[in-house]
Every structure is written in C-alpha cells, then in structure tokens.
Write a structure and sequence with these properties.
This protein is of the alpha+beta class and 184 residues long. The chain contains four helices and six strands, in the order αββββαββαα.
Length: 184
C-alpha cells in the first residue's frame, strides 16, 4: 500500500522552506545579510551572487557592510547594489561598501506586512496544490481498486492533518516576520 502523505511531505516542506527564504529577503528595518546575499554582480565575465565575491557583515543593527575579496570589484558591486533596487544607497569608503538601513515609517511597515501576507498566501496555495495532487491520486487508486474505501477515508484524513500542520508552520513564519517588521 502506498503512503501518499509520506511521499508528499518533501513537497509540503519545499513550500514552507521557499516561504522562509523569501521572508528573509524582505526588509524589516534591521540590517540583515540575506537582503543582499543574492544580488547578482557582473564579475570575471559572468554573473555571480554577491556572497560569492564579497564578505558581508553586520557591524550594527542599521548597517550592512560589504567588502569584495577582489578590490577591483568595488565598482561592479556598487553598480549591482544600485541596480538591485533595494531602496538602499551604497556608500563606498575605499574598498568597503556600507548600506545604511533607513528608518521605516508606519506606512512602509504596513506595506511590508501586506507583502509578507501575500507571500504567505502563495505558500498556502502551493500547499493546497500538493494536497489536490495527492487527493486525486488517492481517488484514482480507489477507482482502480488499489485502495479500499476505508483506506481512502483514512488517507484523506491523514492528508488533511498534514496540510493543517504545514499551514500552521506558514502562519507561524508570517506572524514572526510581521512582529519583526512592526517592532520599532
């Protein structure tokens, strides 16, 4: 007998992990290296992520400091940061680039929370899509007499429990990010 829920758990987990990754890239008023790690930089004739060409540090709560390992890349990194449209202006001091996080006003915080909720809803849609695929597989297997009616009910009940569990994880991530954004 196939264990439909166990087979679907990696897909459920991917949706939650993707949300977690996306939420780390949303600005919350505090400096966070994740905001700039994936900025694409033209270096050595190819496009690379910033974390692959520079050291990124957080000297204080409002500053991201970037120090390219190759001093010739300072201008390229600066251009990439401007092109990334992060809402942050790079300040170049020799070979070090600093990004100062501006204070978020109430309106910006509310807009950011809306974006967080949209990302959360996208994750829940992904979870629902996986649930529907599993549900259809269970129903198809029942019609093919691979699964009994009782087993179908049991599997669908387990599926609903699993989806509820992952939805709670999504809600928790959203609540944590919302609290982080709204904290002054």
């Amino acid at each position: 007998m196939a264990n439909y829920i166990e087979n679907a758990k990696p897909d459920f987990a991917k949706a939650v992990e993707r949300l977690d990754h996306e939420l780390k890239n949303i600005r919350s008023g505090r400096a966070n290296a994740a905001l700039v790690e994936e900025v694409k930089v033209e270096a050595y004739g190819s496009t690379m992520e910033l974390k692959g060409v520079a050291a990124i540090s957080i000297p204080d709560a409002k500053t991201i400091q970037i120090e390219p390992w190759d001093k010739n890349l300072v201008k390229d990194v600066e251009k990439a940061l401007i092109a990334a449209n992060l809402g942050l202006n790079p300040n170049v001091a020799g070979t070090v680039i600093r990004l100062n996080m501006p204070q978020m006003n109430e309106e910006t915080r509310k807009d950011t929370v809306k974006a967080v909720h949209q990302k959360g809803e996208q994750a829940k849609i992904s979870l629902r899509n996986v649930r529907e695929q599993v549900r259809e597989t269970i129903l198809k297997d029942e019609k093919a007499h691979l699964v009994s009616e009782d087993e179908r009910f049991r599997q669908l009940e387990q599926l609903d429990k699993a989806v509820k569990e992952y939805n709670e994880k999504v809600d928790k991530l959203i609540a944590e990010k919302e609290e982080e954004v709204m904290t002054i």
